[in-house]
Write a structure and sequence with these properties.
Elements: H1 4-14, E1 22-26, H2 27-41, E2 46-49, H3 56-63, E3 68-73, H4 76-84, E4 90-92, H5 99-106, H6 109-114, E5 115-119, H7 122-130, E6 139-144, E7 149-151, E8 156-158, H8 168-179, E9 184-191, H9 194-197, H10 207-238, E10 244-247, H11 253-257, E11 264-267, H12 269-272, E12 289-300, E13 303-307, E14 324-327, E15 332-333, E16 343-347, E17 359-363, E18 376-381, E19 384-390
Parallel strand pairs: 1-18, 2-3, 2-11, 3-4, 4-5, 5-6, 6-9, 9-10, 10-11
Antiparallel strand pairs: 1-12, 7-8, 12-13, 12-17, 13-16, 14-17, 15-16, 18-19
Helix pairs in contact: 8-10
């Protein structure tokens, strides 16, 4: 890996002919991160989470690499668009109420063969049937398991509020309901352990909280591995030809891959490595996706102002959802202003070495959400831009 100063010089040289604001992906880092995901998956295929990439060219790039297979999408409209674009295995990770989309799916054999939809409630099947518009294509269905950790008799719940299906009998019951219903077929099972895969366990300056998180995650992994195996056995008793069992996420690839019941791993953020993935003991990656804001003011000693930059990430509001000034190192937000909609003051001694028109490079808190702010990603190899490719937004696609 290069030093941060070396990377900053590379990025400045590579993009000197471009006006900021701009966004880049360092392909050397992107490819190295992809290799690391494959290594940690230990032979199990990695399904790429498209919401963490949001760029068709980069989805194609990573899926061309050994060890990756399939896409995990986030809306039905996106799923259909990707399938029409030639992606042949698209798992929609969230239930949908897109009636027009379901009508298209049920009336197109190619789309129906490429897209799998998520179900955790029979009412979702009713909605699909009501939207068929005469279409008789069989709909591929994946069932989702609630992965949350329950403690103290259920009085304490840790984990995302997703599926209501938790116990083997519940999943097997829904599998039977789907099997008995014409026009649907269960092909997969998904369980996303976000409280393990998406929560860092090494928080700077917070050793007690970090230890508490590690203890929680160890307990969660043990409980889920046992329950997931039981659920898979129960569902396979109903659907012997189940095609896949998906689990994991960037932060838990190697632990989830070690479970015999899991057949594939989901990951996407680990390709870009946003700032929220700095706080993990299980792996380290190379920041690959960055954005640059130009210096437009020098209000005083130790202060510069850049254009824009207020790009908060989704989730519970807090300082950890803000982008972080990355290069040059040593800059920080003014606590009275933070990251601004139109301008952002930055404090620190490196500010005195920055001139009007210089760039400050930022890392977004999360991965694909950066692409909702930029229509182009400039792809860098060494100290050159070798290609410029559209994001979803650049293709006129804003799915959420």
């Amino acid at each position: 890996m290069n030093s941060p100063a070396t990377d900053r010089a590379r990025y400045d040289r590579a993009t000197a002919h471009l006006d900021a604001p701009l966004a880049i992906v360092d392909l050397d880092a992107f490819d190295a991160n992809a290799d690391d995901l494959v290594r940690r998956a230990a032979g199990k295929p990695v399904r790429v989470a498209s919401k963490s990439v949001r760029c068709r060219a980069l989805l194609e790039r990573v899926l061309a690499r050994p060890g990756f297979a399939g896409i995990m999408s986030y809306t039905l409209a996106e799923s259909l668009w990707l399938a029409r674009s030639g992606f042949e295995d698209v798992l929609l990770a969230y239930p949908s109420t897109d009636r027009a989309g379901f009508g298209e799916l049920a009336n197109d054999a190619k789309l129906a063969g490429a897209v799998t939809v998520m179900v955790d409630d029979p009412a979702q099947l009713d909605l699909v049937d009501a939207a068929r518009d005469g279409g008789a294509e069989e709909i591929r269905v994946c069932l989702e398991l609630d992965t949350s950790l329950r403690l103290l008799g259920g009085r304490v719940r840790i984990g995302a509020r997703r599926s209501p299906l938790r116990e083997p009998a519940q999943l097997a019951g829904l599998a039977r309901a789907v099997a008995a219903r014409p026009g649907f077929r269960v092909v997969g099972l998904m369980a996303y352990e976000g409280h393990v895969a998406g929560v860092g366990d090494s928080l700077a300056g917070r050793p007690l909280r970090s230890r508490t998180i590690r203890l929680m995650q160890a307990a969660a992994r043990k409980e889920l591995a046992e329950r997931r195996a039981a659920v898979v056995r129960a569902v396979r008793a109903v659907v012997p030809d189940l095609e896949f069992v998906n689990g994991g996420g960037t932060g838990s690839v190697q632990q989830t891959a070690a479970e015999d019941a899991v057949t594939e791993i989901a990951a996407g953020s680990g390709l870009y490595v946003p700032r929220l993935f700095d706080n993990y003991t299980s792996f380290s990656g190379r920041p690959a996706a960055l954005f640059a804001q130009p210096v437009v003011r020098r209000p005083g000693v130790g202060v510069v102002t850049v254009l824009g930059g207020g790009y908060p990430a989704s989730g519970a509001a807090g300082a950890d959802r803000l982008p972080v000034p990355y290069l040059p190192q040593g800059l920080r937000y003014d606590p009275q202003e933070g990251a601004g909609e139109v301008q952002t003051p930055l404090l620190g001694s490196p500010a005195d070495d920055l001139l009007i028109g210089d760039r400050v490079w930022f890392r977004h808190a999360k991965a694909g959400e950066l692409c909702e702010r930029f229509d182009t990603l400039h792809l860098i190899e060494g100290d050159r831009v070798t290609d410029s490719v559209p994001t979803y937004r650049g293709e006129g696609r804003t799915f959420l």
